[in-house]
Amino acid sequence: MDVWDPIGVKDEPNAQDEYDGCLGGVYELLVTGASDESIEDHLWRIVTERMELSAKKSDMADTVKALRQIPLRPNPD
To answer: Which of 37, 46, 50, 77 is buried most, with the most CB atoms less than 10 Å from its CB?
Structure first.
């Protein structure tokens, strides 16, 4: 939420779970080795299609960079 907060709720205590519905798809892309471009595209679609906000795909680059810094293990399924 510190890096990707398209609707500006990071300082709203009652909205800290606002993006939880996006986590599964992003996690899956990360652990399956998706390209940065694929992750940017996924985030961009969330912003533009689900949230109906205006954004450029390049706006997602800092978020992808931050996501790549998170140490993740693939789901054992």
So the answer is: 46
Rounded CA-CA distance 47/33 in Å is 22
Q: Which amino acid is at 54?
A: S
Distance of CA 1 to the CA centre of its chain: 9
Helix residue ranges, H only, 1-77:
20-31, 36-45, 61-68
pTM over 0.70: yes
Give how far Cα 46 sits from Cα of 22, 23, 53, 74, Å. 8, 11, 9, 23
